[in-house]
Specification:
single chain; binds copper (II) ion; alpha+beta; five-stranded mixed beta sheet; Immunoglobulin-like; 9 helices; elongated
Length: about 375
């Protein structure tokens, strides 16, 4: 029998703790577990990596792996999943840019203008200010300890007010805050007010993988999953190699964007809150279900830049990395072609145009893709 209020409270607390534990395990949001069948995805041209990992040879290179899988012909729309070109070659990740460095400190080397400004603000201003404030406080503390020790002051001072001191210790923090706020607001404005955009990529967080779609390029979508280590996959399944990237950061399908172009990321989620962050680009933003947030990046230097989901989103939160490959514009067009997409102004593939207007839409391949992706996780 539960008699005392303490016992009742104890039971309630236990129930709440269980609910939190279940939620953390990703069991509670039923909607989060359902396949995203209703996604209006026009075409999934590059799911080879996500849909058919077992069809790939062990340890094959990323390039070979990204070639289209020998997919089963889709009777309703036989050409929808057929990439038009397959010779795109992915870049090898660098050892020191776009990746965390072992025992490294500070921010990753920034590759966007906003990132460089933010890094300068952080390293040359905020850090300096912190050091100065800490030093001043420590010195004042030492002076007070020494000067006002009991031995030197048998009769303690009864001073309780000092107008000049009070004005100083009010004004100085105000000045410090203003000195931080002015460059901060300027930086925030730059982060969230992109210049005219050259390309838009829609980024969707899922438990526990990312999907990237390219509305400017035919609307195709790719599914990006963590690549597991060799010891962790079944025989015949694809595993990570150094060509893919570091452990826990390498993915089967990278987001590819053109160098020197302003790319806007529309970030949302299919289930719970995730967050999209590529440290070398600096900006980070939440992926909220039912909302679209925006950030942007303009990266001049081609390369591979890794990031991670940065919002605790369930049991496998730590296993949904992000890999963005920045390529020269002509290579980007090649990649778009390899995924069955089109460049702006380019005619869609004849096969797509030939589909009768009233034809029943093909069964959405993304369902299978996402299910496979989830299962892989
Ligand atoms: Cu997440």
């Amino acid at each position: 029998m539960l008699q005392s209020p303490t016992q009742v409270t104890g039971v309630r607390m236990k129930l709440i703790a269980w609910a939190i534990a279940l939620a953390a395990a990703g069991l509670t949001p039923a909607a989060a577990q359902t396949p995203q069948a209703a996604q209006p995805i026009k075409e999934v041209a590059g799911p080879a990596a996500a849909t058919a990992p077992s069809e790939r040879a062990q340890g094959q290179s990323l390039d070979a792996a990204n070639a289209p899988a020998p997919s089963t012909p889709d009777s309703a729309n036989p050409t929808a999943t057929q990439p038009t070109a397959t010779n795109f070659t992915h870049a090898l990740p660098a050892k020191n840019i776009g990746v965390p460095i072992r025992a490294g400190t500070g921010l990753q080397e920034q590759v966007t203008d906003v990132g460089r400004e933010a890094a300068g603000f952080h390293n040359n201003w905020l850090l300096l200010l912190c050091v100065v404030i800490c030093a001043v406080v420590l010195i004042l503390l030492c002076i007070a300890l020494w000067k006002f020790r009991r031995g030197a002051n048998p009769t303690p001072s009864r001073t309780s007010h000092n107008t000049l001191l009070e004005v100083v210790w009010t004004l100085v923090p105000v000045i410090i805050l203003v000195a931080i706020a002015v460059p901060s607001f300027s930086l925030l404005r730059k982060q969230y007010m992109p210049p005219p955009v050259d390309l838009t990529v829609k980024v969707t967080g899922n438990q526990w993988f990312w999907t990237y779609s390219y509305p400017d390029n035919g609307g195709f979508e790719i599914v990006s999953n963590l690549l597991k280590e060799k010891a962790d996959v079944k025989t015949g399944d694809r595993f990570r190699t150094d060509a893919d990237g570091p452990p826990l950061l390498a993915v089967d399908e990278r987001m590819v964007i053109p160098a020197g172009k302003v790319v806007k990321f529309l970030v949302t989620s299919n289930d719970v809150i995730h967050a999209f962050w590529v440290p070398a680009f600096y900006s980070k933003i939440d992926a909220n279900p039912g909302q679209v947030n925006e950030i942007w990046a303009k990266v001049d230097e081609p390369g591979v830049y890794f990031g991670q989901c940065t919002e605790l989103c369930g049991a496998r939160h730590g296993y949904m990395p992000i890999a963005v490959e920045v390529v020269p514009p002509e290579k980007f067009a090649e990649w778009i072609g390899s995924k069955g997409g089109t460049m702006p102004g380019q005619q869609p593939a004849a096969t797509q145009a030939a589909q009768p207007a009233g034809a029943t839409p093909a069964p959405i391949p993304a369902v299978a893709t996402n299910q496979a992706a989830t299962a892989q996780n």
